[in-house]
């Protein structure tokens, strides 16, 4: 079974787009939750994860981080390991 990837985003977020492009290029399915018009939801995600900016990327409910962390995991090969590839 493939791990579930969830990404919390907002519109007009360059880092969100960068993470989205990487996931799509790698063929990694993900659920995207747009928090642009949900400030309470954004505060809740920040409180739950401790990650203060979008995107907030979770893998099976565990925080990966944001776009920079996602790209670092990809470069190191750890992303494949986390995804069981």
Question: Care to describe what's here?
Answer:
This protein has 85 residues and is α+β, with helices and mostly antiparallel strands. It has one domain: Glutaredoxin, CATH 3.40.30.10. The chain is built from four helices and four strands. The protein has helices spanning 14-25, 39-49, 67-76, 78-83; strands spanning 5-9, 31-34, 56-59, 62-65. A four-stranded mixed sheet has the order 2-1-3-4. Strand 1 (5-9), helix 1 (14-25) and strand 2 form a beta-alpha-beta unit. The longest helix is centred in the N-terminal third of the chain and has 12 residues, at 14-25. It is globular. The chain starts with a strand and ends with a helix.
Key structural traits:
4 helices; 85 residues; 4-stranded mixed beta sheet; 46% helix
Helices, strands, pairings?
Layout: E1 5-9, H1 14-25, E2 31-34, H2 39-49, E3 56-59, E4 62-65, H3 67-76, H4 78-83
Helix pairs in contact: 1-3
Shape: globular
Give the tally of β-strands. 4
The CATH topology is given as Glutaredoxin
* First-residue to last-residue Cα separation: 11 Å
Strand composition percent: 15-25%
Sheet with the most strands: spatial strand order: 2-1-3-4
Arithmetic mean of pLDDT: 95
Which stretches are poorly predicted, pLDDT < 50 over at least 5 residues?
none
CATH H-tier superfamily: Glutaredoxin
Helical residue percent? Answer: 40-55%
Number of domains: 1
The main sheet comes to: 4 strands, mixed
Structural class: alpha+beta
Per CATH, which architecture? 3-Layer(aba) Sandwich
